[in-house]
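Ticket reopened. Same input as before:
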Amino acid sequence: MRWLASIALMLTLLIPLVARAVEPGEELADPKLEARARAISAELRCLVCQNESIDTSEADLARDLRHLVRERLKAGDSDQQVKAFIVERYGEFVLLKPKVDAGTSALWFGPFGLLFVGLAVAYFYFQHRRAQALEGFLTGDEERRLGNLTDVGRRWPDDSNPPR
Amino acid sequence: MARGREDTVIVELGHFALVTALAAAFIQTIIPLIGAARDDARWIAVARPAALAQFGFVAAAFLALIIAHVDNDFSVLNVVQNSHSAKPLLYRISGVWGNHEGSMVLWLQILTLFGAGVALFGSELRPAFQARVLSVMGALGIAFGLFILLTSNPFARVADPPLDGMGLNPVLQDPGLAFHPPVLYTGYVGLAVSFAFAVAALIEGRVDAVWARWVRPWTLAAWTALTVGIAMGSWWAYYELGWGGWWAWDPVENASFVPWLVATALIHSVIVVERREALKTWTVLLAILAFSMSLLGTFLVRSGVLTSVHAFATDPARGVAILLILGVFIGGALALYAWRAPRLAQGGLFAIVSREGALIANNVVLAACAAAVLLATLYPLIAQTLLGRTISVGAPVFEFFFPPMIALALALLPVGVALPWKRGNLHIMSLRLRFAAAAAIGLVALTLAFVSASAWTVFVGLLLAAWVAAGTAFDWSERTKLGRDAFGVTIARAIGLPRATWGMVIAHFGLAICTLGIVVDSTWKQEDAVLLKPGQSVPAIGYTLTLEKIEPRVPHENYTSTRATLRFDRDAKTVLVLHPERRFFALQQTVTTEAAITTTFLRDIYATLGEQRGDQWIVRVQWRPLVAFIWIGALTMAFGGMVSLSDRRYRLGVPMRSRRRPVEVAAE
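Engineering reply: fixed in the latest deploy. New output:
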């Protein structure tokens, strides 16, 4: 069991260190809390930038929001509460990852739905084409019955006449 | 320097050339189309000279615009708004397409270049078919010619020429910008040829192996350029935007990625048409969709309906005009498709376990990926219009659905390559693939013996990259019967493989390399941000990092630079020295960060200089393992495309000749 424990330890130690626009001194002392702050920041939009998260932006507003996120975390908020707090002030637009609800279900499930429907359509089209193409050919059973009746309708694999 | 309007009529000549090009486009569209319908050889013969004339006149207009920019002709509005006398020559030239009007002229230039290409190198095409293709391309020329002249005229003069211009966005003043848009546009617009071939085939009601053989090289050329263009854009973002990201799922990145995905599906499905005469209607639809996605991308970028880093000069009126063009061409082509496609003859039959079946699965997955990226890109627009909600769809959403979907395509790749046409055998296939599977698992196990990962997705990612590489390698060894004959015979077989096969092998390897780079960089990159006084040292990303000195405000041509000297030591030895910069452009009051990057095969070290805090500076450093593989992989894919393009069967303008086969090789 010891090797399992050492693998587990290695796995936890090598969680990638990601530090982007976060400035030295901004980080929280508690690494767990800081990791949560980073994860939340990556999902919040820098509102004065073009399509950037507050985690990567150097803008002042982004820095203020990073501070705000960390303060709320220190105050004991859950991740959800922090996001709700920011959304209350800045609106839903601030979330780079909109929450799953009726209005965004097409966004969240659409991609996999498209894939599934695409594969299903391709499969059924394939079956349909095959059935269509084989129409007009006799089935094995029909051919046997016909062969019994006439003894000439029978075809051999190489299209030659059956031996008499 | 700045010439007055009395000095030069070049701008007027350029304007005149553009109007003449429009007239040529009308002739190119109407006469050959009627000629082809009435089977009148003289009217059909108008197509080629008209296409060449349109190209020539657009080239003259484009040249005039370049001259106006190079000459700093500040009586031209476009030059005033986008140039400045202190701007270096390279950026005065590249600045021509660094703005809306100029980039549309470049668009038209490349469209007419392809038109001229079809006119010159399409000698093996049936004349009536060639005339129809050129007619469709002429119609595109009309649409964009009118668009430029009516809404975005780059030759408009100003009544009171100012002494100097307003300059180009500093972020765009980079050698990357000189080459990225032309290459990307070549890919975008090249797909217009596939589109024109598809529409012409629908008009004629004939799609067959010969058609596929004509379409394939043009599509491959466009796909290759698109691949290179996207890779260049990604690399530019990585070193220029200052935070080391190479893909942000920005709307404009997506606008190039969606056509790429569709074009990738197209270059695979057109093989099925060529080899087996199956999937015809689907391939025609893909050819229409690939270019439609290019047009849609142009619309998204130019109209500014989506917020994006690339959206220079956005204007709702232009958006409406492009939307109109979009409606006419996409709507028209799809209506024609709905009308004519059911009449196309059905092709050969095949079992579901076959090369055809695998290529269909590849196409479905790629098309679903493209549709999904498009859906997510447009979703803010949809939510706004239908639900009245203002939402953002950022990278986290794309990272949720895209990797698992594309993983399916990667997982299927070696299977498809291992299967024969028409009917495959699962047992034989699994026998062929078990070596590849074993090799892939072995490689990943070996890798993970040295490094460890925090998430199961990393295992899957590495496994897929190894699976694609191993599957491709084993397929190659099957085709050359490696190890079953003398080595020399194997080599002879390898040389004798068709170029198209080599292209496929190289491109699939490129895909594996790119995947590996993405997985490894995303998983194991390390980044540190530190505050340093000059002379101070701290440990960072496994080195001892010293800020040796800061040289403040060194003047340059059109900016001042603050340059840091960073020393990286390990075990008391200096490993490298980097010089990240912050550039201040006084004209625009803008600061850009110039990252300093050192690349070795296995890793990048990336440093940027942040803002000053008192007497300290923010320094950000990153350790990026295998990050270069991302672009090496993409360029390898593009190289595969080029090798495939050089295949005798598809060589443009070369009459068909039966291919020499020195040694019997496995069927493709």
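Chain A has two domains: 2-99, 103-150. The mean pLDDT of chain A is 74. Please confirm and we'll close it.
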